[in-house]
Amino acid sequence: MSPGPGKRALVLSGGGADGAYGVGVLKALLTGASPSTNHKPLEVEIISGASIGGFNGAYLAGHMQKDGPATAGNLETVWLTELARKPDGSNGFFRLVVDPTRVLDPRRYFPNPFRPLIDLARDAPGLIADFSSRLGHLLTSRDESLDQRLVELLNFASFISAEPFLDSVRRNISFEGIQRANGVIELQVLATNWLTGKSRLFTNLELAGSQGPEAIVASGSLPGFFSPLAYGSQLLVDGGVVQNTPLRPAIRAGARDLHVIYLDPMIKDIPLPHFENTVETIYRMVQISWAAAVNDDIGDAAEINRGLALLERLAGGVQLAGAEAEVLAKVGPKIATRARAGLRYKPLTIHRYRPIDSLGGELGFLNLKFDRLRRLIQRGFVDAIHHDCKAAGCVLIDAAGARPLAAPAIDQSGVVR
């Protein structure tokens, strides 16, 4: 909500393997198959993404000037040929360190019969050193309680490597294209500084630098599953820790017409498990938190839109009704404070694209089966071509562009009221 000319933006959320749903939505938007773009191919000046949204966004920014609307279809090919799980069990996101199946599966020995043994020899020393260090701390430390030292003995992230994702990023993202797009398409990839807890925003020129691939991988390094990634003197983790759907950075960059693709379904539509379990509980807690944050941001934008429209009516001599006066009393001080600083809010259009129910449960974000990814892409495409702004709770401006329409109120669970 900053001053300046209006720009069109894509905002892409995190969600791991569920990001395939977003690829389907992108196909519809970029090819003009969605009513939300008046059935015209969407052209954008800003792409803002976190986690897997950062990967998808970086691919788009690097290829859109060259490939145009075909970019989304090419991204689909990358997902299905590079990132999806292969018949031998490998994938383009992660691998298990010292995975016994890599040694026992005969398919792993072709075309290189020594590959599983080479991988085992490469992984084992690091894993042994990590465990030895933790065991030594358990046996010798006197600064922490025994309970604390036992908790520190095992780290799940020690058994998972993001090396396949780094390789995928290097092979498929055009960093030269991202650099050429500077000034035409502003790319924003959000990570989190693990030491300070603050957002770390990467843009075109920094991403086109020597550590660009590491920055994109860091944006998707979910703590607890992947180890923090060193970027210079910083330790970076998943951008979703702070802001899973980076709407505000796009608005600060001047976006006025935003297409927001996020993967958190309506919380009320996620069934409670038959049996309570820790993974399901944490998953639901995180999804509620992510959905609340993005819906709060969209709700704020809708309120500002209403306030601007009411001020316009008030300036035209129209007397406000009781409910309208209450709305203006709530948002008026925000608008006035900004105006005193020499700035002013501008009305926003925000199109929301999201699944209406869960995409695959608590571990769906790690499920990279080919058929599942293909179904998610198709589902995202179908949802986007049948997009209904009223049902989705989009924030709109009337056809004349002069007055924001009254956008629906959105509660923290994503329910439109």
Short key terms for the protein model shown above:
10 strands; 47% helix; 16 helices; alpha/beta; 417 residues; two-stranded antiparallel ribbon; disordered C terminus
Q: What would you call the quaternary organization?
A: single chain
The description of the largest β-sheet is:
8 strands, mixed
Count of helix runs = 16
What is the C-alpha radius of gyration, as a whole number of Å? 23 Å
Beta-strand content bin: 5-15%
Q: Mean pLDDT, as a whole number? A: 83
Estimate the helix proportion, in percent.
40-55%
Sketch the topology as an H/E string, one letter per element.
Answer: EHEHHEHHHEHHEEHHEEHHEHHEHH
| Class by alpha and beta content | alpha/beta
Q: Shape, please? A: globular
* Low-confidence spans: 399-417
Distance between the termini: 24 Å
Number of strands: 10
What does this structure look like?
With about 425 residues, the chain is α/β, with parallel strands linked by helices. Helices cover about 45% and strands about 10% of the residues. The protein is built from 16 helices and ten strands. The strands form two sheets. Strands 1, 2, 5, 6, 7, 8, 9 and 10 form an eight-stranded mixed sheet that branches. The protein has a two-stranded antiparallel ribbon with strand order 3-4. A hairpin with a 2-residue loop joins strand 7 (about 230) and strand 8. Helix 7 crosses helix 10. The longest helix is centred in the last third of the chain and has 38 residues, at about 280-315. The radius of gyration is 23 Å and the shape is globular. The model is unreliable at about 400-415 (pLDDT under 50).
